[in-house]
Amino acid sequence: MRIVNVPLGRRSYVINVGAGLLDTVGRECGRALLGKRCAIISDSKVAPLFGRQVKVSLGRAGFESEMVVVPAGETSKSVKWVEKCYDELAAHRLERKSFIVALGGGVVGDLAGFVAATYLRGIPFVQVPTTLLAQVDSSVGGKVGVNLKAGKNLVGAFHQPRLVLCDLDTLRTLPMREYRSGLAEVIKYGIIYDAELFEELERKMEKLVRRESKVLAGVIARCCEIKAEVVAQDETESGLRAILNFGHTIGHALEAISNYGKYLHGEAISIGQVAAAKLSGEILGLPQRDVERIGNLFNRAGLPTNIALNQGQRKKLFAAMKLDKKVSAGEIKFVLARRIGEVEFGQKVSSSLLQQALNSSHARR
Ligand SMILES: NC(=O)c1ccc[n+]([C@@H]2O[C@H](COP(=O)([O-])OP(=O)(O)OC[C@H]3O[C@@H](n4cnc5c(N)ncnc54)[C@H](O)[C@@H]3O)[C@@H](O)[C@H]2O)c1
Ligand SMILES: [Zn+2]
Questions:
Q1: Is 83 a catalytic residue?
Q2: What would the pLDDT profile of 232-283 be if each residue is shown by its tens digit?
Q3: Are 141 and 109 in contact, with CB atoms under 8 Å apart?
Q4: Model confidence over 189-208: pLDDT tens digits?
Q5: How many CA atoms lie within 13 A of 315 on its CB side?
Q6: Bridge-partner residues for 13, per DSSP?
Q7: CA 252, CA 131: separation in Å to the nearest integer?
Q8: Whose C-alpha lies nearest to ligand 1, atom 18?
């Protein structure tokens, strides 16, 4: 097992990464000195797979747990489901010292985390992420929240978990498309922070796609470490944390114009990162060879790297980028790479260059 520390002063916690960790949930919650009662919040796909195992582990360690199951899918990340969760917690008389175990992907983590952040003005919670995306990204860093009709993640809070347990065994049942989508975030960490990780991914991508445990453990732990380092330097996103959004300005806009239907998040940011790499070549002098290495790696992960948009769609895409939360004073700012492993945020990009990057994006495969 690998252990990653997230150093945030009094809010510090550890991330355990390894196989067989579901059976340790009870023991680890005991170590974290959490109260006797808890609720496991999970979704309708994950609860039947792993709910019992977690409940048994908690029971063995002397915890009383209730299971709260929400429908699988993004629509559960809503105020309506927050309220339903509150009602369940109240019905089971969870109190200040009780805690929540978020068992599932990023949807469950964000929803359960937000419920934990606000119920009784905040109770502790533990993340047990079961998708690759949740293990390397959403379960670490303390951003929690839900969507409104007007847009994604518009209501939220910062609430750090007390503990994160990434059980590699849970990834076995993850559909291939979801798994590949998580790889888009994994590759992102290499580009924004760690050239060595990027090279390791170049050497081992096929093994990673096959979900070989040994490779996975090291890679997931490294991604958590990077996210932890970035978050520790900028917990509330006033600066550096923005680098985690590499490829996301275009990616989010693509998700929005396709009504969150056509692309999974990882697929959208794969296209976004390849376009951002091209912009990086134009604006920060990222060598052409590295632009190509980036495109190739996403390709080998089985992710889309290009998109053919007609003029109407392109217009919509630009409008959606301007609506992104990260836009300040109407100006779209990008995270761009100077070299693999080093990025800069707050980069202005002219709309003509942006057009060009998107137009040329289907030239390379
Ligand atoms: N808080 C953050 O910092 C942060 C960061 C990135 C993304 N997010 C959020 O995360 C969400 C996306 O997370 P996601 O990609 O994990 O999606 P998800 O939680 O919807 O999971 C994807 C699908 O896989 C199923 N699933 C989960 N684990 C499984 C397993 N082990 N086996 C089989 N099926 C399984 C789920 O039921 C769901 O149908 C988005 O809402 C996004 O906004 C948050
Ligand atoms: Zn992302």
A1: no
A2: 998 777 788 999 999 999 999 999 888 767 899 999 999 999 999 999 999 9
A3: no
A4: 999 999 999 999 999 999 99
A5: 3
A6: 6
A7: 20
A8: 105
Q: How far apart are CA 74 and CA 80, in angstroms?
A: 12
Higher pLDDT: 308 or 47? It is 47
pLDDT of residue 360: 65
Tens digit of pLDDT for each residue in 316-352? 898 888 877 666 666 688 999 999 999 999 999 888 8
Cα 123 from Cα 83, distance rounded (Å): 16
Q: What is the signed CA dihedral for 110, 112, 113, 117, rounded to 10 degrees?
A: 130
Cβ proximity of 22 and 58 under 8 Å: no
Does residue 152 register a pLDDT over 90?
no
Residue 278's nearest CA partner among 309, 250, 242, 310 is: 250
Helices (H), the chain: 25-31, 46, 52-60, 79-91, 106-118, 132-133, 176-193, 195-209, 213-233, 248-257, 265-284, 288-300, 311-323, 351-359
Compute how many other C-beta atoms are within 10 angstroms of the C-beta atom of residue 40: 26
What is the Å distance from ligand 2's center to 137 Cα? 7
* Nearest to 43, CA basis, from 91, 93, 110: 110
What does the alpha-carbon distance between residue 332 and residue 136 come to, in Å, rounded to a whole number?
A: 27
Residue 365 a catalytic site member: no
- The CA-CA-CA angle for residues 316, 268, 227, to 5°, reads 125
Residue 92 among the catalytic residues = no
Residue 363 has pLDDT above 50, yes or no: no
- The amino acid sitting at 156 is G
Q: Which one of 159, 162, 227, 333 is the catalytic residue? A: 227
Which pLDDT belongs to residue 238? 76
Where residue 66 falls (left for φ over 0; alpha for ψ -120 to 50; beta otherwise) is beta
- Six token digits for residue 314: 């392109």
Give the binding-site residues of ligand 1, using a 6 Å CB cut-off: 43, 45-46, 49, 72-74, 77, 104-108, 110, 130-131, 133-134, 137-138, 141, 143, 152-153, 170, 173-174, 178, 265
